[in-house]
Amino acid sequence: MSGPLQEQEAARSLSSGGNGAGKPAVLNSMDFQQRSSAPRLLPSTEANIEAIARLEEEFLARRTLLERAADAIADFSGSIKFVVLHIVWFVLWFAVNSGKLPLVRAFDPYPFVLLAMLVSCEAVLLSTFVLMKQNRMSRRADQRGHLELQINILAEREITKLLQMQRLLCDHLGLKQAAVDQEAKELSQTTTVEGLAQELERKLPRR
Prior knowledge:
By secondary structure, this protein is mainly alpha-helical. It is built from eight helices and no strands.
């Protein structure tokens, strides 16, 4: 009886070990299939993404040392580490200057005038750094807006030219219904950016 039992136990151990060793391989194959089945971007789309990333990297690389320091301080002041650091600072300050720690002499008793002055100075400096970053990001947003406007104007001119060529082809082929389309005729006319801006300025509600 001992022989068959030992053989059965050995078979169970081999089967369990084989399953345990096979699970990572199955998971890896499933992961590979998920990666391979993920939709790939078109080459033109990848080129556009790379161009945008390159522009952003160039913009970050052009920052001065002061702008880099301002960005780092502004980012740190908006993090949870900044909040935790100030909580620890205030708790220790209150504990020391309220007499809770007898081994440490109080140097700023209630109403904590020194702490109020330090916090006020810190708030002024932090707000200045945050405003510096906001101004820089605002300039960057203006640059993006100008680039987007230029691309939109170029695309409008290209589409207008295509509509004009399409109407000429319709006239040449004798397609009267397409040639006399009033909406296509209006869209094929060149759009004046200045006139459109003035019309928007005139009709948009003022705040």
